[in-house]
Amino acid sequence: MKIKEDSSTIWFRLIAYAVVITGSILCLLPFLLIVSASLTSNESILTEGYSIIPADFSWEGYRIIFQVPGEVLQAYGVTIFVTVTGTALGLLLMTMAGYVLQRKDFKYRNYFSFFIYFTTLFGGGLVPYYMLITNYLKFTDTMYALIWPSLMTPFLIILMRSFINSAVPDEVIESSKIDGANDFVIYYRIVLPLAVPGLATIGLFLALHYWNDWFSSALFISDVTKYQLQFYLYNIINTSAFLTNIGAGAGVTLSEGVPSESMKMAMAIVVTGPILLLYPFIQRYFVKGLTVGAVKG
Amino acid sequence: MTGTKKKAISLMLTAVMSLSLFTACSGGGNGGSGNSGNNGGSGTPANTPAAADAANEQAGIDTSKKVELQFYMLGNAPKDLPKIQEQINKMALEDLNATVKFNYTTWTDWDQKYKLLLSTGQAVDLIFTADWTQYQQYAKKGAFLALDDLLPKAAPELQAFVPQEMWDAVRIDGSIYTVPATYKEYVTGGFVWREDLREKYDLPVPVDIPTFEAYLEGIKQHEPKLQPLAIGAAVDAALQDSYLDIKRRAVGPMQYGVFASYDEPGEPVSYWGSPEHLEDLKTYKSWADKGYFSKNELNETESSQDKLVNGTAAAMLNDNPVRYNQTSSRMKSLHPDWELGYTPYGLTNGYATPVHPIHNGFAIPKSSRNAERALAFYEKLVTDKRYNLLTQYGALGVNYTVEDGYYKMLGDANSNGFPREGMNGWAWRNPEFMLFEPSYEGVQKIFDELDKIQKPDIYTGFAEDYTEYQAERAALEQVEKQYLFPLMAGQVADVEAGLKTFMDKARQAGLDKVQEAYKKQWLAYLTEKGIQ
Question: Among A36, A84, A160, B282, which residue's CB has the most CB atoms within a 10 Å radius?
């Protein structure tokens, strides 16, 4: 038997569909434009501009990239490695920090929380940060420079602390203690399973941060084989921008090939494509992780 | 433990998560805004005491300890750099008991990075300098090591190789801070236009502004689809400096609206707000009104050269002979029946200035721990043919061959791991070893012509010290962007009123103080160098 829907539900649905559809079109259009531009010959882009359907179909952009694919693949490898290790390590460290900071029997917890919180308000700025990484830690040109700085993000630690605080009642910790669990066992047998939704959120935050990061590469990496993907892309664009902007008086001539418009677009597809394809499959787990705590009352 | 509480938490988390998705892209901006804020403040390089002082006492250089030199160059590293570095290191280890690591800043935020390299005391042994990387200012602030005493000891051959007048020309406050490049070239401007179209419609050859305007008008009439003139977003350099160069014989791209002509450098005047300025702005406006350049020029991201090559524009102002030649051969490879013409401003003006020695050089930062070895290595790079060829053209037989005395690249620019001058070795070019592509003949011809009318560059040796008006300078830059750029791009309907607004805002920002100080420094510089 069908349940009759009243008209307000139907209207709500109609409006919701309309909003979602326009939203998706707005999101898809620029992307379609990139796909089409990557399949258009460079000359036709420059003379006639971009169009949704390629005016002059050509594989040229992709051909040039896959002629020497080594650098793109390497950059992919670096970004995947950094994202996976960074997220895993970061989660471990930040959940531990969050757990300790919320334990009521940790006398100096507010003190330490304040220290961590303080850095989000008052940063040293770029120069001290740069000096710390290059002169003291000597991370120049290593993967450490890419992973290390984001392992303990103050905002995420505080988020984790409040999450554990509200998701894990003190009584649970207390009773585990009575049952003979030590602090570390409580952490990974009791607290972590209860904090899964929080882990998912923070994990996503971190992973996105690592995936989108280019600034660390820009500052600390001069070895081409350690460029992150986003930096690799960004640098290509910057190189052509530099050539456009530098005055004739500088007398700079670069011998390297400057990418054409269609090649830039093809590069964007090559770089974002796999993630786009992967995302629908991973997304399931994120949603699952989020609702784990919500369903059970 | 209530269910609603849990629900509320997970709801909140979802909200935060979706928010994070939307803001993910702006996350990168954080770093960006953070560093731009630092731009002004971190300008003063740390004055680390010269570590080399102690070593200076001994005669000759001590190579008993093996060191690794950190070599910094701007731009992107060529793909084959590791192989080249390995070969260089083999030789350097034998000659100097040193290895070198070639680092490249890339073109992403290179100016920011350059500043950090010099101001944070990082171990950097050799770094590129040029007028456009603010060599003069950095040297004045003490970022580099003075080389006067070091040269005869660590690099006597190099000292003899570079002519004495070049050493003198790079002096800042009496000391040498950089090793100048000896290759003589011209990077002065000129008109670039489509010769095939000019012939087709029988238009005059652009040699000065009136003939150039006639050419633009002709193109506009006969080829309405073509944009007659490509300028680009940097209207200050690409339009105004260039225009002043050819129309008013400017001594150089002086700052803050100060103007001095090449013939009378000792009489700097305020150009901004003057009748001449108004007249020039009106000219630009008329060009914009007639459709010579796009209404959208300030937002242009494509380079003027690309527009010429692809046939969307028919002329540009201000390109140097080398770049013109490059554009021309790129155009020929795509459109064999098109042709590009070029008139250097020098031919019209009656004088041309070869590059100033400051233009390309290498300096040793104060923070270097191996100054002597660095200089000795740089000497090898310039004067030793093995080092020089390897770092300029790559490996012989792998990256290039020599045919009839000309350089020939193996493969193409995408597959070759080391194109010609792939390490951006502008500064250590050695004229005796240089190899050229056959197309260079065109450039050489222009250079030969300019050689006949050459005069020294007066402007580039000037080291401005803006510490006393740093705040006004920053404010002025803002005003210029906001009020003067639209005027230059012909976007303001009433030029006279627009100029007045700009001048009012500029005066409020402290124009008079800045100009006065700038003029004073300029005159002091002229006196010091004995130019009048």
Answer: A160
Whether residues A179 and A84 share a domain: the answer is yes
Q: What is the mean pLDDT of each run of 10 residues along chain B (532 residues)?
A: 55 50 40 36 38 42 87 90 93 91 90 91 91 90 91 91 90 91 88 90 89 90 88 84 87 89 88 91 91 86 83 87 86 86 88 89 92 92 92 90 88 80 90 88 89 88 86 91 90 91 92 92 88 69
Q: Answer whether B120 sits within 8 Å of A123, measured CB to CB.
A: no
Prediction ipTM score: 0.80
User: How far does the CA of residue A1 sit from the closest CA of chain B (Å)?
Assistant: 31
Tokens of B402: 């020599």
> Domains in chain B, ordered, with CATH?
25-184+357-437 (3.40.190.10)
pLDDT of residue B6: 57
Select from A43, A68, A247 the Cβ nearest to the Cβ of B415. Answer: A68
CA-nearest residue of chain B to A231?
B108
What gap in Å lies between CA B118 and CA B112, rounded to an integer?
A: 10
B110-116: long-range pairs with CB below 8 Å, 24+? B110/A242, B110/B74, B110/B75, B112/B35, B112/B39, B113/A218, B113/A219, B114/B74, B115/B42, B115/B43, B116/A126, B116/A127, B116/A130, B116/A219, B116/B42
Q: CA B301 to CA B506: how far, in whole Å?
A: 28
Give ∠ CA A218-A237-B240 in degrees, rounded to 5: 105
For A297, name the nearest residue in chain B, comparing CA atoms only: B3
Q: CB atoms < 10 A from the CB of A278, how many?
A: 10
- Angle at which helix A154-167 crosses helix A109-121, to 10 degrees, equals 140
Give the one of B3, B78, B301 whose C-beta lies nearest to A244's C-beta. B301
- Residues facing B104 on adjacent strands: B73
Q: What is the pLDDT of residue B9?
A: 57
Question: How, if at all, do strands B361-363 and B400-403 pair?
Answer: unpaired
Q: Which residues in chain A have Cβ-Cβ distances shorter than 8 Å to B310?
A: 43, 46-47
- The amino acid sitting at A254 is L
| β-bridge partners, B230 | B316
> Cβ separation of A249 and B306 shorter than 8 Å?
no
A148 and A188 within one domain: yes
Please name the residue that has the structure tokens 């554009």: B327
Query: What is the span of the domain harbouring residue A254?
Result: 68-294
Q: How confident is the model at residue A282 (pLDDT cuts 50, 70, 90)?
A: low
> Across the interface, do A247 and B234 touch by the CB < 8 Å criterion?
yes
User: To 10 degrees, the CA torsion angle through B485, B488, B490, B493?
Assistant: 80
Contact flag B42-A127 (C-beta cutoff 8 Å)? yes
Which of A214-223, A276-285, B290-299 has the least mean pLDDT?
A276-285
Side chain identity at B383, as an amino acid letter? T
Q: The domain that contains A243 carries what CATH number?
A: 1.10.3720.10
Q: What is the pLDDT of residues A236-253, one digit of tens each?
A: 888 877 877 776 667 677
A250 within a domain of the structure (yes/no): yes
One domain for residues A117 and A235: yes
CB-based burial of residue A193 (10 Å sphere; 0-12 exposed, 13-18 middle, 19+ buried)? exposed
Tell me whether residues B27 and A163 touch, CB distance under 8 A: no
Are residues B462 and B522 in contact, defined by beta-carbon separation less than 8 angstroms? yes
User: CB–CB of B422 and A255 under 8 A?
Assistant: yes
Q: Number of folded domains in chain A?
A: 2
Residues from chain B that touch A134, judged by Cβ atoms under 8 A, are: 120, 122
| CA B174 – CA B146 distance, rounded (Å) | 10
Q: Is residue A173 part of a domain?
A: yes
CA–CA separation, B147 and B176 (whole Å)? 6
Average pLDDT of every residue of chain A: 84
pLDDT of residue A196 exceeding 80, the answer is: yes
